[in-house]
Structures
1.
Amino acid sequence: MRKRVALILCAAIGLLAIGISNASAQNQPLRIIAFGAHPDDNELRLAGTAAKWAALGHQVKFVSVTNGDIGHWREAGGPLARRRTAEVQETAKILGITAQVLDLHDGELEPTLENRRTIVRLIRDWKADIVLGHRPNDYHPDHRAVGQLVQDASYMVTVPFFCPDTPPLAHNPVFLSYEDNFTRPNPFRADIVVSIDDVLDKKLAVVEALPSQFYEGGANGGPQFVPSDEAGKAKRRNDVRESFKRRFMATATEFRDKLREYYGPERADKVQAAEAFEISEYGRKPNAEEIKRLFPFYAAR
Ligand SMILES: [Zn+2]
């Protein structure tokens, strides 16, 4: 009998929790935390939407789970980690957000219990309404580890005696995955697509503020990407900018049908560049109304 009462109580509390987020009142700023494996991953996949949230007064934090210390063809170790940390701090200024780089080695990240605790504490400390990360079948072992870690945190953030030193969240956040092209065991599904046309220049400025990765080519770059003459430098800058512009535009083209659902056909067909996200099965599942509250960009001006 007692068990039954407890069950009914649990169900009632569960029902009450539906539609409520950690930003307790409707007018509170949303709190978003994003986990990328390296100091450029969140920036490539979320900078546009992050800029839009920040412009509306919402609180966004980008966490790079590794320090990126092998992500270059010419330099490595502490000096590279320091350089890449400075790069993402610069991009955070452009976007109006907060950025943190964890001091874990690039290329060596594992979904350990210790790292799970770190992720859970970061999500709780930020009082997140939305958590983003890679899918666990992304190409890079560090990306897969982040996907696994975020997935493993997605229920534990509410469990009070897991990491009891950090208060649990009263409401499970919505967990979202970044777009990728990998198909096994399942392809990315675009549940939410956001037009970033109004902030495309900002996102391209972010790309430009990460020269170790894009202008110089990162781990697979080489001296051929770093011309010494002014004309060569200008051409290289332009090539990088245009290639990323095409990439951000490809997302809008690929998920045009989804854009139509959110924006209506007339507005959607004019969208040039976009960012797309998949809703995780493990966190809170937002309904259409909550998606519009968490992504307050769809109403026509
Ligand atoms: Zn990466």
Note: Residues 5-19 have pLDDT under 50 and may be disordered.
2.
Amino acid sequence: MNLAMQSRIPLRSGRAMPVLGLGTWQLTKDTAGTVVEALRLGYRLIDTSGDYGTQPAVGDAIRASEVPREEIFFVTKVEEDEDAHAAAHRNVEEAGLEVADLILIHRPPRRGDGIDLWEGLLQARDEGLARDVGVSNYSTEQIDALADATGELPVVNQIEWSPFGWSPEMLDYCRARRIVIQAYSPLTRSRRMRDPVLERIGAAHRKTPAQVVLRWCLQLGVVPLPKANRHEHLVENADVFGFELSASELEEIGGLNEHYSSLGSSLAYA
Ligand SMILES: NC(=O)c1ccc[n+]([C@@H]2O[C@H](COP(=O)([O-])OP(=O)(O)OC[C@H]3O[C@@H](n4cnc5c(N)ncnc54)[C@H](OP(=O)(O)O)[C@@H]3O)[C@@H](O)[C@H]2O)c1
């Protein structure tokens, strides 16, 4: 698998997305400076949301960076209780950008599947506010409902995804429809990084457990979005392209699955 930091994964829209991103939830220590540094280190996908509080600083960093805007993939989200079209406008404006590369429905609403939200995002895309649109925390049934109602599938489903909590069924479903999975909380918010299996496999490659997890995502075709305030973490998480996990290592890492969630009691989408 010949992946590099600048590799891109094709989207069903015909566009392409970087294979690794930077998460910015709670990236509150000098957000703009950290994002500028991440861009300097080679990160090209930055994930934020209208409700993270980091969106204005992410926009500042994108505008301040020496990396051309067209090389940067800016992802943001609208909330399930908002008017999606209006929120898409607000988000792009708040970031001080002309267009988002991807806007997601942050989570399905409490009732229904969010058809109105999806229609609002499709309108925002058609008006040029977003190059692509997708969902987050959606189950396969909820994605089916959006497609049935509008004839349009999301290009991405952003979901919680780590070796301890993932879904082979979701992976198969998304692969069959060319929907790319973005992995949030891939490092389990640091809670499961002392796992002996990850440590053993990491030692064999001279890599850390976090690097093993990120590489496992990459080799599944899943785009991880690790968040890192600390510079050494930013550097470590980008250094996942010079080694390859074997088929048996991939299987062993995937076998750690216990539907674990570092956010709540269970995975939101499964
Ligand atoms: N769509 C959604 O509903 C949703 C939900 C949650 C998250 N997200 C997105 O996904 C991103 C990532 O998820 P997350 O922030 O929840 O969790 P995460 O990326 O799994 O974990 C972040 C934590 O891991 C630490 N860390 C980073 N690199 C490390 C390394 N190499 N070794 C050990 N620890 C390391 C960070 O420390 P330092 O910061 O101190 O470096 C931070 O405490 C978010 O920032 C957000 O953009 C989306």
Note: The two ends are 29 Å apart (CA to CA).
3.
Amino acid sequence: MPKEIAYEDPAVDWETRAYWEGCARHELVLQRCGSCGAVQHRPRALCASCLSGDIDHFVASGRGEVHTYTTIRQNQLPSFAGAVPYVLAYVELPEGPRLLANIVGCEPEDVTIGMAVRAEFVSTGEFAVARFRPA
Ligand SMILES: [Zn+2]
């Protein structure tokens, strides 16, 4: 039985702080542009669609579906080495963005494209990391 991935505290800066603080509250926080309405992730100071600086944060549903994925079978980093095999996926959120995250709660061979998943959060100490499990 593989061990859990030992997530470390993320590198937080002023652009990403609201996202990581949301994860610490077990909320998936995305950005919405006040000018054009685009929803984006990763967090940025400007809208990636229209370059407006009018950016708001909101709590997403936490739902999503697997857009694509890979099964990691080798990773030499100590935090991950004991956890192989594990799944890394792009999860498409109903709000629009795709989030790169682990899929847990099922065997890697049971993950499928289009599978409905729900976010959960693993504490890293001060913050937390989002990952998904079958809904
Ligand atoms: Zn915009």
Note: The mean pLDDT is 96.
